[in-house]
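If you are new to this repository, start here. Below is one unmodified record pulled from the training split, so you can see the exact layout before writing a loader.
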Amino acid sequence: MVLCFLSIGMAPNLFSQDTLKHRIVPGKIIEGDTVPYIDLRNVVIFPQMDFKSWSDLVGYERLVVNIKKVYPYAKLAGIKLTEYKHKLDSIPTERGRKKFLKAAEKDLEAQFGNEIKDLNFTQGKLLIKLIYRQTGNSTFDIVKELRGSFNAFVYQTVARIFGYDLRSQYDPEGNDKMIEHIVQMIDDGSLE
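And here is the target side for that same chain:
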């Protein structure tokens, strides 16, 4: 009887406003009314991946590791390219542009040269594709724009000898669908 009486006495306190935690959220004023507004991040839902064999799964896992290694370089390349284009637009003379590009190339070589040289063949191919994804231009077009047609031709010839193609494009709906899937998962934070 005492237990029943205590629980009835405590029941109103369990659901009172004083015991609930208050949350302050941003709001928007819509037609004179203040409405709570919470900006949610986009969520990308992918279909479940079915691997036909163990080797397909291992290949996928290897692709994830390789993309995790080269994707930061591709993002950095996109940022640096935009930065360099803005600076090049402000330099009035061709001689000044060449001087700036040589200094930028030396700086990049000193900063990332050894790391880029340590990439394996597959990672190099992925980097070329991901640079296209980040910039919207093939590596060949970027070299042609910054260093000239002759240098782009020479770099492409040397790249072809080693099995690379600087003109390769990124096709997120076709051949590069798996790469796009992994990159979106990295950007989303669901793959770390």
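Two things worth knowing about this chain: Residues 1-9 have pLDDT under 50 and may be disordered. Residues 54-188 form one domain.
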